[in-house]
Specification:
The chain is of the alpha+beta class. It is 38% helix and 18% strand. The chain has 17 helices and 16 strands. One of its GO terms (molecular function) is oxidoreductase activity.
C-alpha cells in the first residue's frame, strides 16, 4: 500500500495514538520504522491495523532536534513497542519518553554513534568496534522531560540483590541460533527474561541504502532462510507496486506454489526441531527425510536448497523446470499419508502432550499487542493470515482454511503448523494443473528507479507477516528500506510467556515460537 501518513505534533502524539487504538480500534502495531528525514529531523513511521476491518494506516512523528531527539513512547498502548522502540533508539538515537528500558538491543552498550543516521561516518577510519568484552551495565535508563522541557534520565536497576541470573545462549542449540536470554530464576521458576539480540547482525537494511534495487534482492534470503521465497516475494512486490509493474498470471501461479513449497519446507523443519528439542530423535529424522523431498522439487527450478535466489523484480529468474508439475504432484501424493505418520509417532506421544499442553500460554489480546503474527497468533485465536486479510497473487482465488486454535499454548502453536502443512498441499493441488501460459518475467529497464514516495507491502511467511517498508526519493537505490521481522515480536513476548514457568519449559516455548535468528538480527 502507498502510505499517506498522518502526522501529529509531539506534545499531543501520545494522546492521539491512544485515540487511534482505543476509539478507532487500531489495536495491531504492525511495525515502527525509524528514519532520518534529513533537514526535517529524526523520527518514526508507525504502521497500524484495525484487526476487525483489516484497514491499515500510517502515522509519522518527527523531532527536528538532531542532538537530543525524542518521541513519547507508545509501549503502554502496544506491548510490541517496547522492543521496536529500543531498535529505533539503537540505530537512530531517538529516546522514547517514558520507556522503561532504553538500552541498545543489537549493538554493544559502549558503541558510539547511531549508524542508520544519514550523517554517520561509515568509513573504515571510523571503525569503533573493539575486541574486548562488552561492559554491559546492570542498569537501564528511563527518559522524560523536566519542567523546563529538557531531557532527564532516571537510572533503574535491572536486577535485585538476591536475583539469580543465568544465560541461555547465545551458544545453545535450543535457542535455534545465537540468541542470548538473560534469565532471572527463583529455584527452577523463571521470574524475568531479558533477550539480547545482535550477535549476527549484518546491517542488511543499511547496506540496501547503497545498493541498486536488483542488488538488494540477494540479501533477503539471508534473513529467515526458511522463508526465503516469502522474504523476496515481499521485497519484489513492494518495488513492483511502487513502479506500477503488472505481472502475468503465470508469475502469480508460480510464486504462490513456490511460497507454499517453502512453507512445507519450513514447517517440516519446525516439526523435526520440536522433536529434537524434546529428545525425540526418530521424529526429527522423519521430518528431515520428508523435507529433503520438498527441497528436491524446489531445487530443480531454483537451483538452491537453503538459499533461494529465484524471484526478481518483474517475475522469476527462470521458468519452471519441465518436470516441475509432475514432480510437485508426486510430492503432494507422497506427503498426504505422512501427516498421519507424524501424528502417530510424535503428536500423540504422552511426553509431548505433557510438555506442550498448558505451557507458555499467550492470550489473543497479548498476541495482538505483541504483534505475534503467524502460527503463534493463530494458536491464540487471532485471525491474522495475510493471505486471507490482504490477499496477493493467487491466494484470493484458491480455497483453503485459516488454521486457528484457542488455548495459545505450546501444543496449539505446534498443531497450527501441522495443520497448515495440509492446507499448503491443498493450495498447491488447486494450482499445479492450471498454470497458465505467458511470460515468467516482465522485462525491466537496466537501471531501475522507483518513483518518489513511501510504500509498505507484506506476505505471509512461515512464522508470520514479513513486511517491507520502502521510502524512495526517485533514485536507483532506496532512501530507507525496512524489513518487518517475524521473529522479533515473538522474542519480545518471551518474558510474558515464561514468567512463572519452569526453566525446562523455556526450551519447549522457544521451539514452538519457531523464531529464526537471522530474521531478528537483520
Amino acid at each position: 500500500m502507498k502510505l499517506e501518513n498522518i502526522q501529529f505534533e509531539l506534545n499531543v502524539f501520545a494522546a492521539e495514538m491512544a485515540k487511534l487504538k482505543n476509539e478507532k480500534h487500531f489495536d495491531f502495531l504492525v511495525t515502527i520504522v525509524g528514519e532520518d528525514f534529513g533537514e526535517e529531523g529524526l523520527g518514526c513511521i508507525y504502521i497500524l491495523e484495525n484487526t476487525k476491518t483489516h484497514e491499515r494506516m500510517s502515522v509519522k512523528a518527527v523531532n527536528a532536534d538532531r542532538n537530543e531527539p525524542y518521541i513519547p513512547t507508545v509501549m503502554h498502548l502496544w506491548k510490541s513497542a517496547e522492543i521496536l522502540e529500543r531498535e529505533v533508539y539503537d540505530f537512530f538515537g531517538i529516546k522514547f519518553l517514558g520507556h522503561k528500558d532504553m538500552r541498545r538491543i543489537y549493538l554493544r552498550s559502549d558503541f558510539e554513534g547511531y549508524p542508520f543516521r544519514k550523517d554517520y561516518d561509515m568509513s573504515a577510519d571510523n571503525n569503533r568496534y573493539v575486541l574486548t568484552d562488552d561492559p554491559e551495565p546492570d542498569y537501564t535508563f528511563e527518559y522524560n522531560l523536566d519542567k523546563d522541557g529538557r531531557l532527564v534520565a532516571t537510572k533503574r536497576p535491572l536486577f535485585g540483590d538476591e536475583d539469580y541470573v543465568i544465560n541461555i545462549g547465545p551458544q545453545h542449540p535450543a535457542t535455534h541460533g545465537v540468541l542470548r536470554l538473560q534469565t532471572v530464576l527463583d529455584g527452577e521458576t523463571i521470574k524475568k527474561i531479558y533477550p539480547h539480540c545482535g550477535y549476527i547482525h549484518r546491517g542488511i537494511e543499511k547496506m540496501c541504502e547503497s545498493y541498486t534495487y536488483p542488488q538488494t534482492l540477494a540479501l533477503t534470503d539471508r534473513m529467515d532462510y526458511l522463508s526465503a521465497m516469502m522474504n523476496r516475494h515481499a521485497l519484489c512486490s513492494v518495488i513492483e507496486e511502487a513502479m506500477g509493474v503488472e505481472i502475468t498470471d503465470r508469475i502469480k501461479y508460480i510464486r504462490t506454489i513456490m511460497d507454499e513449497l517453502q512453507r512445507l519446507d519450513s514447517h517440516l523443519l519446525f516439526y523435526g526441531c520440536c522433536a529434537q528439542d524434546l529428545g525425540a530423535l526418530t521424529a526429527f529424522i522423519y521430518g528431515m527425510r520428508d523435507r529433503e523431498q520438498v527441497l528436491n522439487v524446489m531445487e530443480e527450478t531454483t537451483g538452491g536448497r537453503l538459499i533461494q535466489n529465484y524471484y526478481r523484480i518483474g517475475g522469476c529468474q527462470a521458468d519452471i523446470d519441465p518436470n516441475f508439475v509432475q514432480n510437485v504432484k508426486k510430492l503432494c501424493a507422497y506427503m498426504k499419508p505422512m501427516f498421519k505418520e507424524y501424528r502417530d509417532i510424535f503428536t500423540g506421544n504422552v511426553i509431548l502432550q505433557n510438555r506442550f499442553k498448558n505451557v507458555g500460554r499467550l492470550s489473543m489480546e497479548d498476541a495482538i499487542s505483541y504483534g505475534c503474527t503467524g502460527g503463534t497468533g493463530r494458536a491464540a485465536g487471532w485471525h491474522n493470515d495475510v493471505r486471507k486479510n490482504h490477499p496477493y497473487d493467487m491466494y484470493g482465488k484458491v480455497d483453503f482454511d485459516e488454521i486457528t486454535y484457542q488455548n495459545g499454548d505450546c501444543f496449539d502453536r505446534y498443531m497450527v503448523r501441522m495443520d497448515e502443512m495440509e492446507q499448503s498441499i491443498r493450495i498447491i493441488e488447486q494450482l499445479i494443473d492450471n498454470i497458465p501460459a505467458g511470460d515468467f518475467y516482465i522485462k525491466q529497464k537496466p537501471i531501475i528507479r522507483v518513483p518518489e514516495g513511501q510504500w509498505y507491502t507484506s506476505c505471509e511467511g512461515s512464522r508470520g507477516e514479513i513486511g517491507v517498508y520502502l521510502d524512495s526519493k526517485g533514485d536507483k537505490s532506496p532512501y530507507r528500506l525496512k524489513f518487518r521481522p517475524m521473529g522479533l515480536p515473538l522474542v519480545s513476548a518471551l518474558d510474558d510467556l515464561l514468567r512463572g514457568e519452569k526453566i525446562a519449559d523455556l526450551i519447549a516455548v522457544g521451539a514452538t515460537l519457531d523464531y529464526v535468528i537471522p530474521d531478528i538480527d537483520r
